[in-house]
Every structure is written in C-alpha cells, then in structure tokens.
Amino acid sequence: MLRRNGTVMSWNADKGYGFIQSANNQQQFFAHITAFSNRRRQPTIGDHVTFTEQRQADNKHRAVDIDYAHTKLSFSLLPVLTIALVYIAGVAYLSLLGRLPIQLWWLVTLLSVITYVFYALDKKAALNNKRRAPEDWLQFLALMGGWPGALIAQQQFRHKTRKISFRIVFYLAVLINIGTITFYILEKDTIIQWIKSTLGAIKL
Question: Is the pTM of this model over 0.70?
Fold first, then answer.
C-alpha cells in the first residue's frame, strides 16, 4: 500500500482519537492512538504524519500505521546515538593504540555517513512515492561497516523499523562487524602471519 502524507487536524486526548487530513486530496481519516508507532508522544493539532489508508467493514476509511514525519533529533535518540558514537570512538581508540588499522576507523566513519544519507533519501522517496533504494544496498552498507549511521537513521526517520526480516538481517550485520573486529584484535598476529605467508606463496 502507498503511504500518504497528512496533518493532524483534531485530537481528543482524553478519548485517544482524532482526524488526519490527507495532503493529497484534503480527505479526513479517523485515527486512534493505537495506530501510532510512537505512543510515548501525544499527537497534537498540526503534527505532520505519514499513514496508510484502511477501509473498514462499514466502508469507512481510517488511518493506520501512523508515523510522525518530523526528522529532528530528540532525546529519544540518545541510546542509539550513544551506541553508535561509542563504537566509532572505540574503533578510533584501538586504531591509535595500533590494535586496529587506522584505515578501518576512516572506513567506518565514512560508511556511516554514507549509509545515513542513503536512509534519509530513501525515507524521502517513501514519503513522496518515488523510486526507493534497494534494501540489499542498505544492508550491504551496514555489513561493510556503516551500521552506526544506519542505526541512527532508522530511529531518527522511523525508517525500516517494523519489518522483522529486515531487522534480523541488519542486526546480524552488526554482530558480524563486531565479531570480525573482536577476532582480528585477538588473533592479529596470526592473521598478519597468514597474510604474509599467502602473499609469499603467490609470488613463488
């Protein structure tokens, strides 16, 4: 189903429902608080949202799967920001100590920025019903080291946070990243020796 852009036109906080007006045709849709993905925030008149239209048994229409369209940073992002920044800072620190290649820190930082931008553009495309970025690309960028940027973007833009299969693959990519770096730190000398031996054999 295509998602619509809309604005909260009225809201009864005591009863937990109100009406959202579509930006496409000015039609108003009934909306209940349980249809919002973020229930920690109380909807207010003027909030910009995205939603999916659902036809009920009585042939009336209502808004479901509602997300706030704002993209500003908030305190709710603090946990994921902490995780992402601690990871990047940890890679930088270990690089300075010589435990990891300094190039890895640059790569993780650059890919995180690129991945964040990809998510932002994909979210914008979703809101405007335009061509989307393939999910495989987003997952590939995360696997290559850009997962901190993806983690921040997912929460900030409320993007790719509901599809279970996507989330499973994403967190597997995170575990592979952390596991690979941990293995390298523990077995650095063995890995370097193996690389030298392999290159020597190739030259021969």
Answer: no
